[in-house]
Design goal:
Blueprint (H helix, E strand, L loop, with lengths): L1 E6 L2 E4 L4 E9 L6 E7 L6 E7 L3 E4 L7 E6 L4 E6 L8 E8 L14 E2 L3 E6 L1
Parallel strand pairs: 2-11
Antiparallel strand pairs: 1-3, 3-8, 4-5, 4-9, 5-6, 7-8, 9-10, 9-11
C-alpha cells in the first residue's frame, strides 16, 4: 500500500504562484509513475501533469509552460510548481501513483493510489 498526502494549496491571485507537494509513504518506489490531476466543481477529474520513471514528464496542454512537475526520490515527494495561475486553474488537486509501466499516463483509471486532494483557488 502507498499513502499519498498533498499540501500547499490555498488562495492566490491571478498571475501568482503556488507549489504543491505530495508526500508518499508506505511501499514507495522510485519506479512508480506519479501524476497530478484536478477536479473543478461540476467537472470530471482531468489530467494535469505526470512524471514517468521511464520517459520523463508530460503535461496537459492547458498548463504547459506554466506548471512544472518534479520529484525528490530521497524524500519520496513529488512537487507541482504552478506559475502564472489563472482563475480556470481553480480546482481540487490530487496526487496519484501507479505501479505498472503502461501507456495512458493521462488516464485516471491507470493510477492505483490517490491522495485526499488540496484546494487551489485563483481569484481574478
Amino acid at each position: 500500500q502507498v499513502q499519498l498526502a498533498e499540501s500547499g494549496g490555498g488562495l492566490v491571485q491571478a498571475g501568482g504562484s503556488l507549489r504543491l507537494s505530495c508526500a508518499a509513504s508506505g511501499r514507495t518506489s522510485a519506479n512508480y509513475d506519479m501524476g497530478w490531476f484536478r477536479q473543478a466543481p461540476g467537472k470530471e477529474r482531468e489530467f494535469v501533469a505526470a512524471i514517468l520513471w521511464w520517459t520523463g514528464t508530460t503535461y496537459a496542454d492547458s498548463v504547459k509552460g506554466r506548471f512544472t512537475i518534479s520529484r525528490d526520490n530521497a524524500k519520496n515527494t513529488v512537487y507541482l510548481q504552478m506559475n502564472s495561475l489563472k482563475p480556470e486553474d481553480t480546482a481540487i488537486y490530487y496526487c496519484a501513483a501507479r505501479t505498472r509501466t503502461i501507456s495512458g499516463p493521462t488516464i485516471p483509471a491507470t493510477y492505483d493510489y490517490w491522495g485526499q486532494g488540496t484546494q487551489v483557488t485563483v481569484s481574478s
